[in-house]
Amino acid sequence: MMMQETDWHPHILEEAGLSEEAIEQLGEELVAFHDRFSDAFQRSEQQRLGEVILKGMLSDAGNKTTEAVALRYLGEKKVRSSQLFLSKAKWDENTMQENYQQELARLLADEQGMLCVDGSDFPKKGKHSAGVARQYCGRLGKVENCQSGLFVSYASTHGYGLVDRQLYMPEKWFDDDYAKRRKRCRVPEDLQFQTKNEIALDLLRKQKEAGHFPAQWIGCDAAFGADGKFLQGVHALGYTYFADIRCNQQVWIEEPEVGLPPYKGRGRRPTKVQPLTASMSVAEVAQDPSLHWQKVTLAQGAKGSINAQVTRLRVSPKNQNGLLGEECWLYMRVFEDGTIKYAFSNASENCTMAEMNRAATMRWSIEQCFNECKSELGMDQYEMRSYVGWHRHMLYVFLAHLFLLQIRMTFKKKQQS
Protein backbone atom coordinates (compact mmCIF):
# COMPACT_ATOMS: atom_id res chain seq x y z
CA MET A 1 0.00 0.00 0.00
CA MET A 2 2.91 2.36 0.65
CA MET A 3 3.59 2.84 -3.05
CA GLN A 4 0.03 4.00 -3.64
CA GLU A 5 0.29 7.02 -1.30
CA THR A 6 -0.12 10.28 -3.23
CA ASP A 7 2.70 12.28 -1.64
CA TRP A 8 4.55 13.12 -4.85
CA HIS A 9 6.80 16.15 -5.16
CA PRO A 10 4.39 18.95 -6.21
CA HIS A 11 6.67 20.30 -8.95
CA ILE A 12 6.73 16.88 -10.60
CA LEU A 13 2.94 16.89 -10.86
CA GLU A 14 2.76 20.55 -11.87
CA GLU A 15 5.16 20.32 -14.80
CA ALA A 16 3.54 17.14 -16.12
CA GLY A 17 0.03 18.57 -15.82
CA LEU A 18 -1.33 15.34 -14.35
CA SER A 19 -5.00 14.81 -13.61
CA GLU A 20 -6.13 13.39 -10.25
CA GLU A 21 -6.91 10.09 -11.95
CA ALA A 22 -3.41 9.95 -13.45
CA ILE A 23 -1.83 10.72 -10.07
CA GLU A 24 -3.61 7.75 -8.53
CA GLN A 25 -2.03 5.50 -11.16
CA LEU A 26 1.53 6.70 -10.54
CA GLY A 27 2.12 4.37 -7.60
CA GLU A 28 1.39 1.31 -9.70
CA GLU A 29 3.47 2.70 -12.56
CA LEU A 30 6.42 3.26 -10.24
CA VAL A 31 6.30 -0.35 -8.99
CA ALA A 32 6.16 -1.62 -12.57
CA PHE A 33 9.03 0.69 -13.50
CA HIS A 34 11.25 -0.59 -10.68
CA ASP A 35 10.37 -4.19 -11.58
CA ARG A 36 12.30 -3.72 -14.84
CA PHE A 37 15.50 -3.77 -12.80
CA SER A 38 14.62 -6.78 -10.63
CA ASP A 39 17.33 -9.03 -12.10
CA ALA A 40 19.89 -6.96 -10.17
CA PHE A 41 18.60 -8.30 -6.83
CA GLN A 42 19.22 -11.57 -5.01
CA ARG A 43 16.17 -11.36 -2.72
CA SER A 44 12.66 -9.92 -2.93
CA GLU A 45 13.34 -7.89 0.22
CA GLN A 46 16.04 -5.99 -1.66
CA GLN A 47 13.60 -5.13 -4.42
CA ARG A 48 11.13 -3.89 -1.81
CA LEU A 49 13.75 -1.66 -0.17
CA GLY A 50 14.73 -0.29 -3.57
CA GLU A 51 11.12 0.63 -4.32
CA VAL A 52 10.94 2.56 -1.05
CA ILE A 53 14.13 4.51 -1.77
CA LEU A 54 12.88 5.37 -5.25
CA LYS A 55 9.50 6.47 -3.89
CA GLY A 56 11.23 8.62 -1.28
CA MET A 57 13.27 10.43 -3.91
CA LEU A 58 10.10 11.27 -5.84
CA SER A 59 8.12 12.31 -2.77
CA ASP A 60 7.42 15.73 -1.28
CA ALA A 61 9.67 14.98 1.71
CA GLY A 62 12.08 17.74 2.65
CA ASN A 63 14.59 15.21 3.96
CA LYS A 64 15.35 12.43 1.48
CA THR A 65 18.21 10.66 3.22
CA THR A 66 17.86 6.89 3.41
CA GLU A 67 17.14 7.07 7.14
CA ALA A 68 14.39 9.66 6.73
CA VAL A 69 12.75 7.77 3.87
CA ALA A 70 12.83 4.48 5.79
CA LEU A 71 11.29 6.10 8.88
CA ARG A 72 8.54 7.65 6.79
CA TYR A 73 7.50 4.54 4.89
CA LEU A 74 8.80 1.48 6.75
CA GLY A 75 9.29 2.44 10.38
CA GLU A 76 12.30 2.53 12.69
CA LYS A 77 13.02 -1.21 12.51
CA LYS A 78 13.81 -1.00 8.78
CA VAL A 79 16.20 1.95 8.92
CA ARG A 80 19.35 -0.14 9.28
CA SER A 81 18.41 -2.61 6.55
CA SER A 82 17.62 0.29 4.20
CA GLN A 83 21.02 1.84 4.85
CA LEU A 84 22.79 -1.49 4.34
CA PHE A 85 20.89 -1.99 1.09
CA LEU A 86 22.86 0.88 -0.44
CA SER A 87 26.14 0.57 1.42
CA LYS A 88 26.88 -3.17 1.78
CA ALA A 89 24.14 -5.54 0.58
CA LYS A 90 25.08 -7.97 -2.18
CA TRP A 91 23.21 -7.01 -5.32
CA ASP A 92 24.43 -6.22 -8.81
CA GLU A 93 24.45 -2.49 -9.47
CA ASN A 94 26.31 -3.10 -12.74
CA THR A 95 23.35 -5.07 -14.08
CA MET A 96 21.00 -2.32 -12.91
CA GLN A 97 23.14 0.33 -14.58
CA GLU A 98 23.27 -1.60 -17.86
CA ASN A 99 19.48 -1.99 -17.84
CA TYR A 100 19.06 1.67 -16.93
CA GLN A 101 21.25 2.84 -19.80
CA GLN A 102 19.34 0.67 -22.25
CA GLU A 103 16.02 2.11 -21.02
CA LEU A 104 17.31 5.69 -21.26
CA ALA A 105 18.77 5.09 -24.72
CA ARG A 106 15.46 3.61 -25.89
CA LEU A 107 13.81 6.96 -25.15
CA LEU A 108 16.55 9.39 -26.16
CA ALA A 109 18.97 7.84 -28.66
CA ASP A 110 19.61 10.04 -31.69
CA GLU A 111 22.54 10.17 -34.12
CA GLN A 112 22.76 13.94 -33.54
CA GLY A 113 22.87 13.57 -29.74
CA MET A 114 25.44 14.95 -27.32
CA LEU A 115 27.25 13.34 -24.40
CA CYS A 116 28.26 15.89 -21.77
CA VAL A 117 30.80 15.56 -18.98
CA ASP A 118 30.87 17.70 -15.85
CA GLY A 119 31.72 17.57 -12.19
CA SER A 120 29.38 18.11 -9.27
CA ASP A 121 30.50 18.71 -5.69
CA PHE A 122 28.83 17.73 -2.43
CA PRO A 123 29.79 19.54 0.81
CA LYS A 124 30.46 17.07 3.63
CA LYS A 125 31.35 17.30 7.30
CA GLY A 126 33.96 15.02 8.84
CA LYS A 127 36.69 12.99 7.18
CA HIS A 128 35.28 9.47 7.01
CA SER A 129 33.32 9.52 3.74
CA ALA A 130 35.03 8.07 0.67
CA GLY A 131 36.99 10.70 -1.23
CA VAL A 132 36.17 13.55 1.13
CA ALA A 133 38.85 16.23 1.35
CA ARG A 134 39.38 19.96 1.49
CA GLN A 135 39.18 20.82 -2.19
CA TYR A 136 37.53 23.37 -4.42
CA CYS A 137 33.76 23.04 -4.10
CA GLY A 138 31.97 24.50 -7.10
CA ARG A 139 28.67 24.60 -5.26
CA LEU A 140 30.13 26.88 -2.57
CA GLY A 141 32.63 28.67 -4.81
CA LYS A 142 35.55 28.09 -2.44
CA VAL A 143 37.85 25.44 -0.99
CA GLU A 144 35.80 23.40 1.47
CA ASN A 145 35.38 19.89 2.83
CA CYS A 146 33.49 18.01 0.13
CA GLN A 147 33.17 15.01 -2.17
CA SER A 148 33.43 15.49 -5.90
CA GLY A 149 31.86 13.34 -8.60
CA LEU A 150 32.29 13.17 -12.36
CA PHE A 151 29.13 12.65 -14.41
CA VAL A 152 28.15 11.94 -18.00
CA SER A 153 24.79 12.98 -19.42
CA TYR A 154 23.10 12.50 -22.78
CA ALA A 155 20.90 14.96 -24.63
CA SER A 156 18.97 14.82 -27.88
CA THR A 157 15.85 16.38 -29.37
CA HIS A 158 13.86 13.87 -27.27
CA GLY A 159 15.17 14.94 -23.85
CA TYR A 160 18.09 14.49 -21.49
CA GLY A 161 19.29 12.28 -18.65
CA LEU A 162 22.35 11.26 -16.65
CA VAL A 163 24.23 8.24 -17.97
CA ASP A 164 27.15 7.41 -15.65
CA ARG A 165 29.11 8.67 -12.65
CA GLN A 166 32.35 8.13 -10.75
CA LEU A 167 33.47 9.47 -7.40
CA TYR A 168 36.73 11.42 -7.57
CA MET A 169 39.33 10.18 -5.09
CA PRO A 170 41.96 12.83 -4.25
CA GLU A 171 45.55 11.68 -4.59
CA LYS A 172 46.19 11.70 -0.84
CA TRP A 173 43.54 9.00 -0.44
CA PHE A 174 46.00 6.57 -2.04
CA ASP A 175 48.73 7.25 0.55
CA ASP A 176 49.59 4.53 3.07
CA ASP A 177 48.15 6.76 5.82
CA TYR A 178 44.71 6.30 4.24
CA ALA A 179 44.86 2.50 3.89
CA LYS A 180 42.50 1.82 6.82
CA ARG A 181 40.13 4.55 5.72
CA ARG A 182 40.02 3.14 2.18
CA LYS A 183 39.14 -0.28 3.58
CA ARG A 184 36.40 1.11 5.85
CA CYS A 185 34.93 3.01 2.90
CA ARG A 186 35.07 -0.08 0.69
CA VAL A 187 37.21 1.61 -1.94
CA PRO A 188 38.11 -0.99 -4.62
CA GLU A 189 41.60 -2.35 -4.00
CA ASP A 190 42.59 -2.00 -7.65
CA LEU A 191 41.46 1.62 -7.94
CA GLN A 192 44.30 3.97 -8.88
CA PHE A 193 44.55 7.73 -8.75
CA GLN A 194 43.21 9.60 -11.76
CA THR A 195 42.69 13.30 -12.31
CA LYS A 196 39.13 14.46 -12.84
CA ASN A 197 39.73 14.92 -16.55
CA GLU A 198 41.22 11.43 -16.86
CA ILE A 199 38.12 10.00 -15.15
CA ALA A 200 35.85 11.97 -17.48
CA LEU A 201 37.69 10.69 -20.56
CA ASP A 202 37.46 7.11 -19.28
CA LEU A 203 33.71 7.50 -18.72
CA LEU A 204 33.33 8.69 -22.31
CA ARG A 205 35.44 5.80 -23.54
CA LYS A 206 33.14 3.38 -21.71
CA GLN A 207 30.11 4.90 -23.41
CA LYS A 208 31.78 4.65 -26.79
CA GLU A 209 32.49 0.96 -26.20
CA ALA A 210 29.00 0.21 -24.85
CA GLY A 211 27.37 1.83 -27.86
CA HIS A 212 24.03 2.63 -26.22
CA PHE A 213 24.13 6.37 -26.90
CA PRO A 214 24.96 7.45 -30.45
CA ALA A 215 26.47 10.91 -30.22
CA GLN A 216 27.88 13.38 -32.68
CA TRP A 217 28.97 15.81 -29.99
CA ILE A 218 30.76 15.91 -26.65
CA GLY A 219 30.01 18.93 -24.46
CA CYS A 220 32.09 20.15 -21.52
CA ASP A 221 32.91 23.25 -19.50
CA ALA A 222 36.17 25.19 -19.31
CA ALA A 223 37.72 22.85 -16.73
CA PHE A 224 37.92 20.31 -19.55
CA GLY A 225 38.13 22.75 -22.48
CA ALA A 226 41.37 24.19 -21.10
CA ASP A 227 42.97 20.73 -21.14
CA GLY A 228 44.42 20.06 -24.58
CA LYS A 229 45.19 16.45 -23.69
CA PHE A 230 41.54 15.84 -22.79
CA LEU A 231 40.36 17.39 -26.06
CA GLN A 232 42.84 15.28 -28.01
CA GLY A 233 41.46 12.21 -26.25
CA VAL A 234 37.89 13.15 -27.21
CA HIS A 235 38.99 13.68 -30.82
CA ALA A 236 40.74 10.29 -30.81
CA LEU A 237 37.44 8.66 -29.78
CA GLY A 238 35.90 10.01 -32.97
CA TYR A 239 33.69 12.65 -31.36
CA THR A 240 33.18 16.32 -32.20
CA TYR A 241 33.66 18.42 -29.08
CA PHE A 242 32.00 21.67 -28.08
CA ALA A 243 34.20 22.76 -25.19
CA ASP A 244 33.79 25.96 -23.21
CA ILE A 245 37.05 27.82 -22.60
CA ARG A 246 38.17 30.69 -20.39
CA CYS A 247 38.40 34.28 -21.58
CA ASN A 248 42.20 34.30 -21.21
CA GLN A 249 42.72 31.30 -23.50
CA GLN A 250 45.46 32.24 -25.98
CA VAL A 251 45.03 31.72 -29.74
CA TRP A 252 46.41 32.80 -33.09
CA ILE A 253 43.85 33.99 -35.64
CA GLU A 254 46.42 33.60 -38.41
CA GLU A 255 49.09 30.94 -38.68
CA PRO A 256 52.10 32.37 -36.82
CA GLU A 257 55.65 32.49 -38.04
CA VAL A 258 57.56 29.60 -36.50
CA GLY A 259 61.30 29.37 -35.84
CA LEU A 260 64.05 29.58 -33.26
CA PRO A 261 63.64 32.48 -30.83
CA PRO A 262 66.45 35.08 -31.06
CA TYR A 263 69.38 34.50 -28.71
CA LYS A 264 69.30 36.98 -25.82
CA GLY A 265 73.02 36.74 -25.11
CA ARG A 266 72.73 34.76 -21.88
CA GLY A 267 72.46 31.05 -21.13
CA ARG A 268 72.02 28.41 -23.76
CA ARG A 269 71.03 29.23 -27.29
CA PRO A 270 67.43 28.23 -28.19
CA THR A 271 67.20 24.85 -29.90
CA LYS A 272 63.41 24.31 -30.03
CA VAL A 273 61.24 25.81 -32.73
CA GLN A 274 58.47 28.02 -31.32
CA PRO A 275 55.82 30.44 -32.63
CA LEU A 276 57.48 33.84 -33.10
CA THR A 277 54.25 35.79 -33.51
CA ALA A 278 52.50 36.87 -30.30
CA SER A 279 49.24 35.12 -29.47
CA MET A 280 46.15 36.90 -28.17
CA SER A 281 43.37 36.04 -25.72
CA VAL A 282 39.93 35.06 -26.98
CA ALA A 283 38.57 38.06 -25.06
CA GLU A 284 40.78 40.27 -27.25
CA VAL A 285 39.60 38.44 -30.35
CA ALA A 286 35.99 39.23 -29.42
CA GLN A 287 36.77 42.97 -29.57
CA ASP A 288 37.76 42.81 -33.25
CA PRO A 289 35.40 45.27 -35.02
CA SER A 290 35.63 43.30 -38.28
CA LEU A 291 33.83 40.27 -36.81
CA HIS A 292 30.35 39.57 -38.15
CA TRP A 293 27.87 38.89 -35.32
CA GLN A 294 24.37 37.56 -35.86
CA LYS A 295 21.45 37.62 -33.44
CA VAL A 296 19.90 34.21 -32.79
CA THR A 297 17.44 32.61 -30.40
CA LEU A 298 19.38 29.75 -28.84
CA ALA A 299 16.55 28.26 -26.80
CA GLN A 300 13.26 28.86 -25.04
CA GLY A 301 13.78 29.15 -21.29
CA ALA A 302 11.37 29.30 -18.36
CA LYS A 303 11.42 33.11 -18.59
CA GLY A 304 11.20 33.36 -22.37
CA SER A 305 13.59 33.29 -25.30
CA ILE A 306 17.33 33.00 -24.69
CA ASN A 307 18.84 35.33 -27.27
CA ALA A 308 22.47 35.98 -28.09
CA GLN A 309 24.81 37.51 -30.63
CA VAL A 310 27.02 34.75 -32.06
CA THR A 311 30.06 34.52 -34.28
CA ARG A 312 32.84 32.08 -35.05
CA LEU A 313 36.21 31.89 -36.77
CA ARG A 314 39.03 29.44 -37.33
CA VAL A 315 41.92 29.79 -34.86
CA SER A 316 45.00 27.91 -33.69
CA PRO A 317 45.01 27.41 -29.90
CA LYS A 318 48.14 27.90 -27.83
CA ASN A 319 48.67 24.65 -25.95
CA GLN A 320 50.04 24.10 -22.44
CA ASN A 321 53.61 24.02 -23.78
CA GLY A 322 53.19 27.36 -25.53
CA LEU A 323 53.16 25.64 -28.91
CA LEU A 324 50.76 25.75 -31.82
CA GLY A 325 47.71 23.51 -31.43
CA GLU A 326 45.49 22.00 -34.12
CA GLU A 327 43.31 24.53 -35.92
CA CYS A 328 39.70 24.56 -34.69
CA TRP A 329 36.62 26.73 -34.44
CA LEU A 330 36.41 29.51 -31.87
CA TYR A 331 32.69 30.03 -31.22
CA MET A 332 31.63 33.11 -29.25
CA ARG A 333 28.24 34.23 -27.99
CA VAL A 334 27.21 37.41 -26.19
CA PHE A 335 24.03 37.16 -24.14
CA GLU A 336 21.59 40.01 -23.55
CA ASP A 337 23.04 40.68 -20.08
CA GLY A 338 26.49 41.23 -21.63
CA THR A 339 27.94 37.87 -20.58
CA ILE A 340 30.34 36.47 -23.18
CA LYS A 341 30.97 32.74 -23.54
CA TYR A 342 33.75 31.17 -25.57
CA ALA A 343 34.13 27.63 -26.89
CA PHE A 344 36.46 25.52 -29.01
CA SER A 345 35.16 22.92 -31.44
CA ASN A 346 36.94 20.46 -33.69
CA ALA A 347 33.89 20.40 -35.98
CA SER A 348 34.67 20.23 -39.68
CA GLU A 349 35.10 23.44 -41.65
CA ASN A 350 31.77 22.83 -43.40
CA CYS A 351 29.85 22.54 -40.10
CA THR A 352 27.02 25.08 -40.26
CA MET A 353 26.46 27.83 -37.73
CA ALA A 354 23.01 26.35 -37.04
CA GLU A 355 24.61 23.04 -36.02
CA MET A 356 27.00 24.84 -33.71
CA ASN A 357 24.20 26.88 -32.15
CA ARG A 358 22.35 23.64 -31.44
CA ALA A 359 25.46 22.16 -29.81
CA ALA A 360 25.75 25.26 -27.61
CA THR A 361 22.23 24.74 -26.26
CA MET A 362 22.64 20.99 -25.69
CA ARG A 363 25.65 21.76 -23.47
CA TRP A 364 23.25 23.10 -20.84
CA SER A 365 21.49 19.77 -20.43
CA ILE A 366 23.85 18.37 -17.80
CA GLU A 367 23.31 21.45 -15.63
CA GLN A 368 19.57 20.93 -15.97
CA CYS A 369 20.04 17.33 -14.84
CA PHE A 370 21.96 18.46 -11.75
CA ASN A 371 19.41 21.14 -10.91
CA GLU A 372 16.45 18.77 -11.18
CA CYS A 373 18.16 15.92 -9.36
CA LYS A 374 19.26 18.13 -6.47
CA SER A 375 16.14 20.26 -6.11
CA GLU A 376 13.57 17.49 -6.61
CA LEU A 377 15.17 14.07 -6.09
CA GLY A 378 17.62 14.40 -3.18
CA MET A 379 20.80 13.86 -5.18
CA ASP A 380 22.82 15.69 -2.53
CA GLN A 381 20.94 14.20 0.44
CA TYR A 382 22.84 11.10 1.46
CA GLU A 383 24.67 9.96 4.58
CA MET A 384 26.41 6.74 3.55
CA ARG A 385 30.20 6.91 3.68
CA SER A 386 31.21 4.02 1.44
CA TYR A 387 32.43 4.23 -2.14
CA VAL A 388 29.85 1.62 -3.13
CA GLY A 389 27.06 3.47 -1.32
CA TRP A 390 27.81 6.74 -3.12
CA HIS A 391 27.59 5.07 -6.53
CA ARG A 392 24.40 3.18 -5.66
CA HIS A 393 22.73 6.31 -4.33
CA MET A 394 23.54 8.16 -7.55
CA LEU A 395 22.24 5.25 -9.61
CA TYR A 396 18.89 5.43 -7.81
CA VAL A 397 18.80 9.18 -8.49
CA PHE A 398 19.27 8.29 -12.17
CA LEU A 399 16.33 5.88 -11.96
CA ALA A 400 14.12 8.52 -10.36
CA HIS A 401 15.08 11.02 -13.04
CA LEU A 402 14.30 8.46 -15.76
CA PHE A 403 10.86 7.90 -14.23
CA LEU A 404 10.27 11.67 -14.43
CA LEU A 405 11.36 11.65 -18.06
CA GLN A 406 8.86 8.90 -18.83
CA ILE A 407 6.06 10.84 -17.12
CA ARG A 408 6.89 13.95 -19.15
CA MET A 409 7.01 12.04 -22.42
CA THR A 410 3.84 10.02 -21.73
CA PHE A 411 1.67 12.99 -20.79
CA LYS A 412 3.15 15.18 -23.51
CA LYS A 413 2.00 12.60 -26.06
CA LYS A 414 -1.45 12.42 -24.46
CA GLN A 415 -1.79 16.22 -24.56
CA GLN A 416 -0.74 16.30 -28.23
CA SER A 417 -3.23 13.60 -29.15
UniProtKB/TrEMBL annotation:
Residues 36-304 form the Transposase IS701-like DDE domain. Pfam families: DDE_5. Keywords: Membrane, Transmembrane, Transmembrane helix. InterPro entries: IS701-like, IS701-like_DDE_dom, RNaseH-like_sf. It comes from the Bacteria. The keyword DNA-binding does not apply. The chain crosses the membrane at residues 393-411. Signal peptide: none annotated. PANTHER family: TRANSPOSASE (PTHR33627:SF1). This is Transposase IS701-like DDE domain-containing protein. It comes from Lentibacillus kapialis. The lineage of its organism: Bacteria, Bacillati, Bacillota, Bacilli, Bacillales.
